Amino acid sequence: MPVDASLLPNLKNIATRLRIESIRATTAAGSGHPTTCQSAADLMAALFFAEMRFDPGNPQHPLADRLVMSKGHAAPLLYAMWAEAGFIPRERLTDLRLLTSDLEGHPTPRLPFVDVATGSLGQGLAAGVGTALNARLIGSDYRTYVLMGDGETAEGSVWEAASVAHLYKLDALCAIVDINALGQSRATELEHDMEAHRTRWRAFGWHAVVIDGHDMAEVLAAYAEARATKGTPTVILARTLKGKGVSFTEGKPNWHGKPLKPEEATRAYAELEAQFEKEAGPTPSIPAPPAAPAASRPGPMPAPTYELGESIATREAFGTAITKLASVDPRVVALDADVKNSTFSERFEAAHPDRFFQFFIAEQVMVGAAMGLAARGAVPFPSTFAAFLTRASDFIRMAAISGVNIKLAGSHAGVSIGEDGPSQMALEDFAMATAQPNFTVLYPADAVSTEKLIAEMAAHHGPAYMRTTRPKTPVIYDNAESFPIGGLKVLRSSAADTATVVGAGVTLFEALKAHDVLKAEGISIRVIDLYSIQPIDAAALIAAGRETGRLITVEDHYVAGGIGDAVARAVAPAGLTVTRLAVTEIPRSGKPDELVEKYGISATSIVEAVR
Amino acid sequence: MPVDASLLPNLKNIATRLRIESIRATTAAGSGHPTTCQSAADLMAALFFAEMRFDPGNPQHPLADRLVMSKGHAAPLLYAMWAEAGFIPRERLTDLRLLTSDLEGHPTPRLPFVDVATGSLGQGLAAGVGTALNARLIGSDYRTYVLMGDGETAEGSVWEAASVAHLYKLDALCAIVDINALGQSRATELEHDMEAHRTRWRAFGWHAVVIDGHDMAEVLAAYAEARATKGTPTVILARTLKGKGVSFTEGKPNWHGKPLKPEEATRAYAELEAQFEKEAGPTPSIPAPPAAPAASRPGPMPAPTYELGESIATREAFGTAITKLASVDPRVVALDADVKNSTFSERFEAAHPDRFFQFFIAEQVMVGAAMGLAARGAVPFPSTFAAFLTRASDFIRMAAISGVNIKLAGSHAGVSIGEDGPSQMALEDFAMATAQPNFTVLYPADAVSTEKLIAEMAAHHGPAYMRTTRPKTPVIYDNAESFPIGGLKVLRSSAADTATVVGAGVTLFEALKAHDVLKAEGISIRVIDLYSIQPIDAAALIAAGRETGRLITVEDHYVAGGIGDAVARAVAPAGLTVTRLAVTEIPRSGKPDELVEKYGISATSIVEAVR
Question: Which ipTM score applies to this complex?
Fold first, then answer.
């Protein structure tokens, strides 16, 4: 592709300034990854100042092109780019990594030009799939660029994302691999074997362009070629040198994650300044995105229409609820990993096929794409078996750091799934989700609360997780009941209660059974439906504990990190302790009722614990 | 490759019997995946009865060929194979999925012919990399076969494993992809595009053979070709039909995970029985593996040689300890994900290069391969930053279900890593590890306890996790001190103690500082080093709580699922509660000391909590 040669001197000078600022910031901080920035500086100078369409004063413009810095340790380069564009005062760049600065060691959305936090390698391309899908959803031609290191292409999540991006023909997505051939501790697996890289990407259906990542004309031409390529995404495979531009770091090992000492930095500046082109030519102008459309506003969700006593699995109610929600909220999308007929997200697909995305058996890219979608304003509901959400645990961790508005749902949790056995039983999903302090964690027991909590999840801004259940349960709530996040329901209560049993999901019904058995013996217990596990209604739990004298939790989850621990944390300040009924060993296959009995979370165990 | 045609009729009949038994078992169970078994029956009949070398009476023979059933939902097929081989009484096959039977819904190592539990798709090839590496370690020519479904090749972990298997030239590894083109809820992404499959595997360096998976001669020839292929692993890409052999299931959608009804099964048996070859010819004989060598016995590990007060990060002590351990225990191997210079596993590599495996930035295959190595008798220590072990969370879940002897180590945990920011800080690793009820979870505070606990980890059979620390800490223990798993150390104690502060790792030193500050004010506190978080010394914690009146935990971890919760679970039966000092929000970059202070886990916060 022909390029505008008049731009080259200025872009080269920008790249040199980016190198200088990256070194300056990391040397000031005393830590960081300058040589990682140096290898990508030419690629980023050309992208940001001669290719991307954005508003330097408004990084979150909804129709602006996106850049995901998947190699998050190149954060100083990203910050230098935004300083060059005018958004960050240049003198603030040396605040890098200070507690008082949002210029963190790896990028986070505390900065308005960061869509998702990066720094756990191999995640950025999945997020880029999400931002590219969002462009299609909102009918925009904005483009998404993802800068990766070559080392991170060892992560399987990259190939999950590559496969899906090709499947969805995301030609507005462009990956750039900064192939500097040096990892943290040694040479990368493929080193500078550019053909090996090209073969892999082509095998996954991508248009692949191999270039010298330090030849500005080649870089510009590659971006133009990517923009002109239709029907599949493009990857630019750029041969680069780590530490480029400084004689004693260029292509040298053992510089990863090391700032230059001040005297080394001084030598580096001198070398780099000597590389400035005297005749810089015209300053490139950054094209502005089109005017932003008005934000869409969701309508109210109609009330559920279940009948008391009706028998419906909460996973089925989930499928119905997200389908209804999407009818009143155009931002809502659903994502599946080939279990839509088990999670009932197939109902969503049938009603809203254009807002349903199939990721096949690839949970990491499903969650990562949801992060990208959420970062651009969609309200994504990725769902699969709760056990398999652990596959995306590191993505969920990064979603928490990003604070993105992602709505995870996991079905088929606990031993109550029965015969399929432990590999299919989520028994650590609450441990995973509640560990993240900004995650909302919900567990409805019936269809009405499921539907109401889906509406609450969508109305709440921030990451959330809902667990649903495989077996059917009876509808116990009136359609008019409300379920605020952070609340609970007291289902059985009397002045004579001698214990409070806290259940949720399937175990709530065991608690209700236990209540009836004990009542027949003249023993009264209070029964609580803890549908909101995080945040948790500490005051109500403390009150119940004080009034009844004892708190017993019962849950279809391992004992560590589950509902018992959540309740115990909530009531500890009042000096109350909790008796925990939970799964305490690796379970096995069997019938659901047998397993609930065997692992000590049935009505029988509750009755024994109360007695 | 030429094949012995005389074997074909008998192998076809075996395949037909495997189909019949798979249907019979799942129909008896009323759940399961018969059609998944039917597609792979020919592939498995040929593999098990005309290719693999094993002892049907001793599935764990150390030199026998291995089979990993990565598509774990084909468990009934695997069980039928072992019945056909004589290990399982045929009449027991209909005990499938019963609570009283080890024939679980998905295979687990409760059965002696299962190396690792499967059922979370995309994990088996990584385990196969491990068993193949083990063959090389012990100098055996045993081969490893991994049966996968086509749907699971969407999992990125498959491509992590593919890349590493090629890198290590594992020509004793053979993957078999049963390409029946039907996933759970719909057609697979690539359907029957055999060339697309071949292109991907070839791009990752594998020898790829495309066959008709129902043509027994082609199947036999493919195994022979795989055996003859040197220098890289082979994948057999077998075009198959789900539900093969029964007219109303063959190639039909909507049969995934559905047993045949009894009347359907009757029709199926009639159809299948009509397919038996009348002249079956010779019965194939299963070749026996060579005589097993004597098991190697580890020698005693020499005592550490640290000096009290010496300043050493526990991550460094970890590197030293595993290196020493490997010198006395030939079973010990180390696995890295390109951070060996941060975790100090580079010391192991320098001393024992033949027992050190580099997986680059691919944590899933690192942990999966460790599972395979452990299943065959090695004692693997995979290590990386603790934050990035969450990438392998689902593998760790399956390691727990497998009960394998894997020794995970995670460094750079908590806010005390400082400037790199939250993406690099593990703050949920204890939540992940302690959730698994059979995991041992350790967190040493100094170099001596690190080394002693590494020896304890190796001596203990079962999955274990050790967290190590980035900053240096002083040696506080004598080299002769012992650190049994499940113990703790009381470091400060007096009859006047008014509170017990439980620390671990970095926070132990904050607790010791707080002790000195309070002592100067005339306030006495007890200080405990909780180096073993699971199992936990409940009796000692209860005693300390009772004697001092208060328990305060302080940890560099999120509040949910961490040390505070573990202590609270331990002391709740005694009616004791715990005050938890932990990280309660998403942290940011800053200096280690600043962050420890800001997030409320410093000596200052402890002093305030005690006062």
Answer: 0.97
